[in-house]
């Protein structure tokens, strides 16, 4: 509770995102030089996967439909967060001023994209479960119509959650100024500036974490446990190796995403350090989205084959083989 009189509680006209403005200019310039290539590589890798999933006929399957959708979400996520963070490294000390509506939009887009990605990873686990555990019924069950329906549900779920959380936080009065100690308008960093009783908003944030992190992760782990049991029990060595590689890549991405998100948001405000959160954000904004295309392209022969067909030399035999595939 604030010691300010309640009549003085009001929303600031703008927020100032502090970022790393207190760090020495040389260190900020070094971070900019290091993170800019990662940003460009992240966009290139994810856009490449989206493009291959769209244009290569061999990848027109439910698994690569979801993979392309996941990469598209990562592209949007990177475009929302990384450019303002990079610009903040080049600004004079004192932070980066943003309007109230801009801060709310940034928070809402971050939650919507992150929530959609959580649900999308669960949809990918469902797809692999049906493909490996029920292969005879898989073509009838996982149709493209169902894929689009699942994708729409993932986007709608993330958007509704973002609308609810962002509205709940920005309905609060702010009496602790507008200095956001983060690299963007993250939920905890803005919530700590609010006055009055924040228990409702904090409980809503923790409930959202339970809904989007704990439950989907539990379903993913159960699905892949069943998938691994089936892989080890049936099929030849080549089929087991291919299926295990696919499951391993999906599990790696899920652990990276849910691990970072749980470490960041499944904690009460009283037990978190905004300075530590700010440092961790450099990982999940810059490194984690870059690892996704690296994991899928390096471990997946289908994507490697599609990439070779797209950039490799075109011969009549190769063209005929691609058309047959």
TrEMBL record:
It is a multi-pass membrane protein. The chain crosses the membrane at residues 29-55, 64-87, 107-126, 146-170, 204-224, 244-267, 279-298. Residues 45-296 form the G-protein coupled receptors family 1 profile domain. Keywords: Cell membrane, G-protein coupled receptor, Membrane, Olfaction, Receptor, Sensory transduction, Transducer, Transmembrane, Transmembrane helix. The keyword Transmembrane applies. Signal peptide: none annotated. Coiled coil: none annotated. It comes from the Eukaryota. It is found in: Cell membrane. GO terms for cellular component: plasma membrane. One of its GO terms (molecular function) is G protein-coupled receptor activity. Putative odorant or sperm cell receptor. Belongs to the G-protein coupled receptor 1 family. This is Olfactory receptor. It comes from Bos indicus. The lineage of its organism: Eukaryota, Metazoa, Chordata, Craniata, Vertebrata.
């Amino acid at each position: 509770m604030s010691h300010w009189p309640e009549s003085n509680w009001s929303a600031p006209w703008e927020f100032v995102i502090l970022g790393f403005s207190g760090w020495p200019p040389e260190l900020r310039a070094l971070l900019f030089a290091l993170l800019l290539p990662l940003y460009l590589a992240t966009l290139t890798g994810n856009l490449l996967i989206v493009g291959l999933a769209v244009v290569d006929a061999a990848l027109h399957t439910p698994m690569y439909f979801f993979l392309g959708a996941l990469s598209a979400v990562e592209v949007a996520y990177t475009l929302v967060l990384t450019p303002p963070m990079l610009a903040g490294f080049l600004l004079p000390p004192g932070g980066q001023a943003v309007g109230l509506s801009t801060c709310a939009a940034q928070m809402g887009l971050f939650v919507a994209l992150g929530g959609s990605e959580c649900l999308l990873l669960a949809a990918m686990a469902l797809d692999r479960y049906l493909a490996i555990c029920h292969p005879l019924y898989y073509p009838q069950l996982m149709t493209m119509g169902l894929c689009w329906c699942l994708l729409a549900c993932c986007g709608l779920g993330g958007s509704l959650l973002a609308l609810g959380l962002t509205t709940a936080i920005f309905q609060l009065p702010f009496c602790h100024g507008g200095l956001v100690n983060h690299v963007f308008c993250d939920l905890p960093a803005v919530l700590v500036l609010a006055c009055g009783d924040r228990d409702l908003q904090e409980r809503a944030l923790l409930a959202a974490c339970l809904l989007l992190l704990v439950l989907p992760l539990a379903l993913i782990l159960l699905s892949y446990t069943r998938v691994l049991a089936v892989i080890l029990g049936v099929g030849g060595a080549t089929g087991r190796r291919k299926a295990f590689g696919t499951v391993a890549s999906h599990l790696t991405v899920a652990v990276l995403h849910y691990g970072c998100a749980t470490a960041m948001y499944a904690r009460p405000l009283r037990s978190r350090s905004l300075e530590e959160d700010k440092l961790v954000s450099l990982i999940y904004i810059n490194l984690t989205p870059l690892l996704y295309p690296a994991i899928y392209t390096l471990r997946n022969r289908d994507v490697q084959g599609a990439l070779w067909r797209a950039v490799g030399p075109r011969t009549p035999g190769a063209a005929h083989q691609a058309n047959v595939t």
